[in-house]
Amino acid sequence: MAIENLSDEQVRTWTREQKDRWWLENVYRGNMPQLTLRAALTGFVLGGVLSATNLYIGAKTGWTLGVGVTSVILSFVMFRAMSRMNLSKDMTILENNAVQSIATAAGYMTGPLISALMAYMFITNTPMQWHQMLLWNILASILGVLVAFPMTP
User: Fold this and answer.
1) CA 108 – CA 137 distance, rounded (Å)
2) Which of 10, 128, 130, 153 fits as disulfide partner to 6, beta carbons 3.0 to 4.6 Å?
3) pTM (global) more than 0.70
4) For residues 107 and 66, what is the distance between their CA atoms, to the nearest angstrom?
5) How many CB atoms lie within 10 A of CB 105?
6) Closest to 42 (Cα-Cα) out of 111, 88, 110, 108
């Protein structure tokens, strides 16, 4: 099902209030489940597994992988298969989006472990303790949120 779009003429001539009203009536899906327990757990599990694979690949090649597309495809396939076996119902598109967001957040936590921390350990020629890595990841996450927050519209 395609999402309806405004025409170029409507985009140019309508006021912000008219565009907001049109979006609310034609696009918004307020009654559709989004951040559910199963979406959160699925995102958590997929994020953990994909983070581990990302760490392995990063340690072998020095590259990190984006896990967003992989996580959304895996969650869609898992719940579609379970719905065909009558074990669960299909995930909504918004639940699948929540899974992707959670798994992607977990997957990108491996970036500092592979890039900055590996460079630090390579230069100092000493392994870093786990609590120092944890502190680094927490501080890098807080800094990322603080930098990204003012950029949101």
Assistant:
1) 11
2) 10
3) no
4) 7
5) 16
6) 88
